Amino acid sequence: MSQLLGSSQPVQARTSHSSFITARENPTPDNPVAENPTLDKSSTPSRASILNSISVPAQEQKEMPNHGEDKTPRNSLRPPPAPRFVSYFSENFTDEPALQSSNEDSTSSEQTATNNSNGTEDIEAQHEKLERSTYTTNTNTTSQDPTQSTSEIHFRSMNWLQCSALMIAETISLGILALPSVLATIGLIPGILLILIMGILAWYSGYVMHQFRQKYPSIHSWADCCEILMKPLGWGRIGHEIAGAAQILFLLFLMGSHILTWIICLRTLTGGRVCNIVWGVVGMGIFWILDLPRTCKGMSWMSVKSNLKVKSNKENKLTTPTPPPAFASIGTAVLTTMISVGIRSPPQEPYTLWPRAHLSLREAFLSITNIVFAYAGHVAFFTFMSELREPNDFPKSLATLQIVEISLYLISAIVIYVYAGSGVASPALGSAGPVVSKIAFGIAVPTIVIAGVIFGHVASKYVFNKIFKGSVHVHTRTRVSTLAWMAITLGLWVVAWVIAESIPVFNELLGLVSSLFASWFTYGLPGLMWLFVYKGRWNEGWWMRGCFV
Fold first, then answer.
1. pTM of the model
2. Which residues cross the membrane (predicted)?
3. Torsion over CA of 449, 450, 451 and 455, rounded to 10 degrees?
4. Which range, 26-35, 206-215, 421-430, 470-479, is most confident?
5. Which listed residue, 29, 214, 506, 535, has the most CB atoms within 10 A of its CB?
6. What is the set of domains in the chain, with CATH numbers?
7. How far apart are CA 516 and CA 473, in angstroms?
């Protein structure tokens, strides 16, 4: 008996947080309740179950001390109601059903815990665990610093429509202006086939990027992606640094190409009366000011007018997106150019269906790289995925981009080349004549600016996260983070301005950017991602074999 009870004291059963019931000593082994006629069995079923669960041999019963017969009626020994458990860490703990359930569970656990000596410790541990969880929940919701919560930056705030607008504004910008000259170099039929095929491949490579990030959700940039790709070779960290540097260089060249296009635009509008360096500095300042918002949603007002116009009523809510100004800008400019070249006199050099005579290898590859540049938006896709409210919606944004992109590329390139002839200018807006070209360039200014701002934002965010990784400045708007963001964006735009002034030829700059970086980010590295996503399934059916090849 001493092993069961732990001492020679009377048997005790804890029935609440603060009350104990003392069992009657020397009960009859067969029926301990029968010798007390005053015991109400219906009123104390839990006590009978407790006493019946204790089996005491007769020899040990004689050794138990008798302190006298208990005169107290058993009906008066009902335990008082358990006090409501309220955490003193919070004043708003008002979940009544949860409290009652937890108290009932703890009471029933206490009633059955008399079979072992660890019952009390288990119950106390449960209460302590409940109290700790209550404290954690309430401190997470009520103990935040008000000044810090107001300065917190919410990055995952875009919906798929806003993402589509950003992707259209980022991708359909400068590339479309070089495509008519591409057809003039390699011919109408080869050019159409290349634009269509490379557009479909770019669509699928973007979808593979989405699948790869779904498998590795920690990816936020190309550096993170290449670290995973190179890890099987033991070069994960090296791959991270190389890809990060390549991404920054690619974005810097893209930013420089937008400054160069800005210079060409302003030179056309002013008739060349102002030095190109002055226009370059003015454009650099505008790009830098518009790059000060730290989130993609903060920039989406530039791509979608007033973000999304929402019309709501009591019965239903209708969301009506307005056309993005960047897309409307470049679309209107290209349409103006197509109308202008269509109503002009026939060109002196008509179009040709096949490549022109004496085409050099350099000219052919330069034309192909210009098509690659037109689909070079993949460099920013990981950033857009990271800031989507629902990352699974990225294929919707990608489909919207590619359908609009391929259609607009084909229509504009074919129409402008057919009516302008083999002497089409690059950028194509210069083929519209002196007056109309000024109008077209003026309409295209929003696209030139917004797409460059998006590239600058992606580059600045990578550098900023690289410097302040793991610190509070990444997700909050502090004085240090604000000044650092301003300095980083300004420094990157200064470098881009230097690149634009150093390579003043539009097609040459686009070809250099494409050959160095765009082909890898759009077509090369997504192929390696496909091998990771479909590992072990490369030989399943004709489609998988074709993709593997």
1. 0.64
2. 185-205, 242-264, 270-290, 326-344, 364-386, 398-419, 439-459, 480-500, 512-534
3. 100
4. 206-215
5. 506
6. 1-78 (no CATH), 82-143 (no CATH), 158-548 (1.10.4160.10)
7. 33
